[in-house]
């Protein structure tokens, strides 16, 4: 069994570390070269672990959304903030220490007062950003980004409303303009929500 695992592993690693895997594979199998060996295939009947796949996808979504929120709020990557994680009814509950470490989230104190709440799938995250960001500077940044998003939305909408443009433009160009308009609308919604969620100050 160990030989079978090593054989497959050496074939997979060969493009990354060719000289080492070549020597080890020859010693293991006695064959002339791993370079001409067939690529390992998934065993017949392997259905995968759907629950594990869904757990990983949920974890990725949670980490992505919290990191996006931190970035949007102007928090530095290494800056720690207090947060309450609502993972009790999810498969991610067992991973709370790792999630806190990855996202730089401290345990909430008795005086914890959340300034923002995120819902990601079945999980909820309450974060206290008070004192962690320069609210005035963040408000200026968000207002600038919101103005740019509104300008982009207006330009894309004007193009889409122009009959001459719609009649002459290739389909792929029209699709790109529609995509820009949709992205600008999504940005306006997101930035408006962030502005509304900023603490007073």
Describe, in plain words, how this protein is organized in 3D.
Residues 132-159 form a coiled coil. InterPro entries: M/V/L/I-tRNA-synth_anticd-bd, tRNA-bd_arm, tRNAsynth_Ia_anticodon-bd, Val-tRNA_synth_C_sf, Val-tRNA_synth_tRNA-bd, Valyl-tRNA_ligase. One of its GO terms (cellular component) is cytosol. Keywords: Aminoacyl-tRNA synthetase, ATP-binding, Coiled coil, Ligase, Nucleotide-binding, Protein biosynthesis. The chain is of the alpha+beta class and 201 residues long. The chain has three domains: 2-36, no CATH class; 50-128; 135-197, Orthogonal Bundle (Helix Hairpins). The protein is built from seven helices and four strands; from the N terminus they run H-H-H-E-H-E-E-E-H-H-H. Strands 2-1-4-3 form a four-stranded mixed beta sheet, covered by helices on one side. The longest helix is centred in the C-terminal third of the chain and has 27 residues, at 135-161. The mean pLDDT is 86.
**Approximately how much helix is present in the residues?**
55-70%
| Sheet of most strands | 4 strands, mixed
Q: Could you say which structural class the secondary elements and strand pairing correspond to? A: alpha+beta
Give unreliable regions as ranges: none
From the alpha carbons, calculate the radius of gyration and give it in angstroms. 25 Å
Number of helical regions: 7
Rounded mean pLDDT is 86
Alpha-carbon distance between the termini?
A: 64 Å
Shape: flat
The total strand number stands at 4
Task: Please list the strands of the largest sheet in the order they lie side by side.
Answer: 2-1-4-3
What's the helix-strand series? Answer: HHHEHEEEHHH
The number of domains is 3
> Approximately what portion of the residues adopt beta-strand conformation?
5-15%
